[in-house]
Amino acid sequence: MRQRDAGFIAAGDTVTVTAAILPDRELKAVVKTKATFSTTRNERTGTSSPEGNLKEIEVIAELAEAPKELRPGGTATVRVESTLKKDALLVPLAGLKEKDDKYWVTAVGKGELEVKIGKISTTFAEALSGVQEGDLIVQ
Known about the structure:
Blueprint: E1 14-19, E2 27-34, E3 39-40, H1 41-45, E4 55-56, E5 59-63, E6 76-80, E7 90-92, E8 97-99, E9 102-107, E10 111-120, E11 124-129, E12 137-138
Antiparallel strand pairs: 1-2, 1-6, 2-5, 3-4, 7-11, 8-9, 9-10, 9-12, 10-11
């Protein structure tokens, strides 16, 4: 998965898989793991092509069923459905700090606040608790 899209998926999310060998059949799968760091396609495959510099995040999904037609090394398209919240409270990643496996921000007039984080994009994180709308976050 491309690095910029990886913040929208987490372990436990449902995805739809269409195997090239079964193009008319959609298979359900559940995301089991997602890497915490990105690598390039060149690093992953041991090649050195210009298009291989694309950053990727490894995501492993487990199929709910495994039809007998599937073979190791087969090609598939995986569709990830992500819902964006209409009224999500966002904090800029530039103002987010991580320490002791927790997230913190510094808010003007309030000091350091622990923030529970939801989905993370390349520029913002969803704040589930800890800050309020209107808090000015120091970057």
